[in-house]
Every structure is written in structure tokens, then in C-alpha cells.
Amino acid sequence: MLKRILVPVNFSTASARAVAVARDFRPETTTLRLLYVVGPSEIAQATADPSINPMHARDERSKAEAAAREKLNEWVREGEEVAVEVGSAAEKVSAHADQWGADLIAMGTRGRSGLQQFLHGSATEWLVRHAKQPVLVVHDVDLDPEQAAHLPPMD
């Protein structure tokens, strides 16, 4: 029985669809946690001094984490949880799932292919191959109107 579902989000349509599907199909007693991973590049963009290591720029890191929590709070529903990590998306999602004791990771994918996939990689693909938990991959498919009506706000 599923007790904990982790849904990594990046505030895209694909991750919103993963949230909608996870909400629709989770058992009532299951805890849903939305996770956003702040990348080092996000912190670096906020750092005016290029000599500062983004992972050690405490103020910028705190601001990025606070902004992510604020955005997550727009997505979360009553009874759900939010979390923010800083680092490489795939590795942080995997580590968070392990530490939190997730039974399932549900995430969206944009369906990149070919050169774009090779150049950018895919956190979803990495997790499918390496996560200890099952990974539910939600493709960018049409949702029924009831699910679509409850999608969180997206960028």
C-alpha cells in the first residue's frame, strides 16, 4: 500500500500534470509531498559576484529556497507537504525519496528526444534507471476536464 508519494516539480505543465495524476490516483491515506530542487545555476544567477561559489552563497541560496517554497505553496493543497532541496535535480530527488521513505516517485516528462535529450539529459530518465522506488512517469497527455480544472498555476 502506498503511504508516501513524492512528486518532484519544476513548475512546468509536465510537472503539473504529474501532480494532478498523483492526486487523482493516490489512496486517501497517502501523503503527497511536492519537491522542488533549486539548481546551482539558479543561485549563481542571483549572485552578483562571479567569484562566489553558488553553493556557498548563503543569502542567495536562502532567497532561492524561500522563493521556491512560496511558489510551492501556490501548488499545494490541504494535507499535502512541500520540500525544497538544493543541488542536482535527479540526485536530490533520489536522496530525498530515500530519506523521506517514499513508496513512489511520480513525475512529469517533456518527452525530449535525440540531440536535445543527449545534450540536456533527463532527471526522469536517470530516476527510472537508478531510483530505489518505482517511478510513475506522466507524459504530456490530455487529462480529463475534472483533472485539468485542478492543475496548479504554471509558468
From TrEMBL:
Q: Which residues form the signal peptide?
A: none
Similarity comment: family membership: Belongs to the universal stress protein A family.
Pfam families membership: Usp
What protein name applies here? Answer: Nucleotide-binding universal stress protein, UspA family
Cited InterPro entries: Rossmann-like_a/b/a_fold (IPR014729), Universal_stress_UspA (IPR006015), UspA (IPR006016)
Q: Which part of the chain is the UspA domain?
A: 1-139
- Stored PANTHER family: STRESS RESPONSE PROTEIN NHAX (PTHR46268), UNIVERSAL STRESS PROTEIN UP12 (PTHR46268:SF6)
The species this protein belongs to is Aquisalimonas asiatica
